[in-house]
Description:
By secondary structure, the chain is α/β, with parallel strands linked by helices. About 35% of the residues lie in helices and about 25% in strands.
Amino acid sequence: MSAALAIEGLRVVYDGHHALKGVSLDVAQGESYGLVGESGSGKSTLLRAIAGLAPVTEGEVSVDGERVGPGRDKAFYRKVQMVFQDPYGSLHPRHTVDRLLLEPLAIHGFTDIEARILRALDEVGLGSGFRFRYSHQLSGGQRQRVAIARALILEPSILLLDEPTSALDASVQAEVLNLLEQVRSDRGLTFLMVSHDLAIVTHMCERLTVMQNGQEVERLSASDLAARTVTKDYTRNLLTASEGFVREGSA
């Protein structure tokens, strides 16, 4: 059975800077896969390259066994959606929640717009009362729920999650992570998730790749990471740096 998402030898070069240096990974259908590493390690660049938001210099991206071309067509975005780190910057400030959710439906030619918008708001724990609010009228957690609703409204099979809770306080982080786990379970979604927080990755993901300077350092299971069964000094240093920072409200 082919992987839901397969990356082979992906390279990204910006103005002579090698942001990704031949990264490869496979994510199974329904799996939650983590990418960890310090700032500048290439984690977010990898997600952006998959989504067509960063120029791929070399390598291949495949979804459900089919190679994705250099451009990303509507069919790709029906299958693959991305949730960004910053809920303050990813939503248009002059658009209501209704308009934000309507836009992808209109682009992709859906007709049952009313039902889909109401269902999307309900799925992320926001009632219809939020529908005609602007993003500045929402808390950070509510904005991120809208961003998740916008990603889910096209019924994709794969979500790319770029530090989806790092801009939120600890108690709200836990709520949003629990929401993401619930929608993955309900819909059988595949996640590729970037985080600098090893506790979040251990909690959310089955497997992970540790990255440094645009390349893979090692691959681990989440249980290996939790047990500190690692082979590389870089990963040990990440673990040491994360000790003492316990995520609150993660029940």
